[in-house]
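Archive maintenance. Older records in this collection stored only the sequence; we are now back-filling the structure field for every entry so that each record is complete. The fields below show one back-filled record exactly as it appears after the update. Entries are processed alphabetically, and rRNA-processing protein utp21 is next in the queue.

ARCHIVE ENTRY
Title: rRNA-processing protein utp21
Organism field: Spiromyces aspiralis
Length field: 106
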Amino acid sequence: MNYLQSLNPSGVDYELRSLTVDSDLTDFVTFLEMLDHHLATKRDFELVQVYLNVFLRIHSDIITNNPEKFEKLLRKIQIDYSKEWERLSGLIRYSLCMVDYCRASK
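Back-filled structure field:
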């Protein structure tokens, strides 16, 4: 993840397009596991969201042609993504309430 973060957008796009397509799709699975790990550890939510979007846009054909390799992992990512979004949206709502309270108390 640190390497991807150091790249500009075109570099990230290039790296994602350069993933090796072998019979086990190891690079694809490893990349998705890395994204899920970051979601599970509550790190870099927006970055994970962007990388996942680009990855799925580029490699949707490979994923749809190999559902047995990706279905379980993508469902786990979906669950972890939803949990993290709920947590973050709760923090956003809390922050907005605090801002409203501070404005009103003046």
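Update note: Residues 2-104 form one domain. The helical segments are 2-6, 9-17, 26-40, 45-65, 67-104.
Entry marked complete.
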